[in-house]
Design goal:
21% helix; single chain; alpha+beta; 3 helices
């Protein structure tokens, strides 16, 4: 909870931002809303993840995809459109 007093408040949930996270139970500020509906959840942060997302999707047989993005950042960054 000490992370709430720091700049990167996401550290409260997963210890910070990571390129790729595979979640099989709890985590992230939004993930708890999904855990009762999915047995596995992959969280990808495009700011840090340099690999091809198609590989994860194909290798893991992912058939549901949810994209959550900060609207302000989405419109300010040209590399996500």
């Amino acid at each position: 909870m000490d992370s709430l007093d720091k700049k990167d408040k996401y550290r409260v949930f997963l210890g910070g931002n990571h390129p790729l996270i595979k979640i099989e139970s709890n985590a992230n500020s939004f993930i708890p809303f999904l855990t009762s509906h999915f047995s596995e959840i992959y969280v990808v942060d495009p700011r840090y993840y340099d690999e091809d997302l198609n590989h994860i999707i194909e290798d893991e047989g992912i058939d549901n995809l949810l994209i959550l993005y900060n609207v302000k950042t989405f419109f300010e960054q040209n590399d996500v459109r």
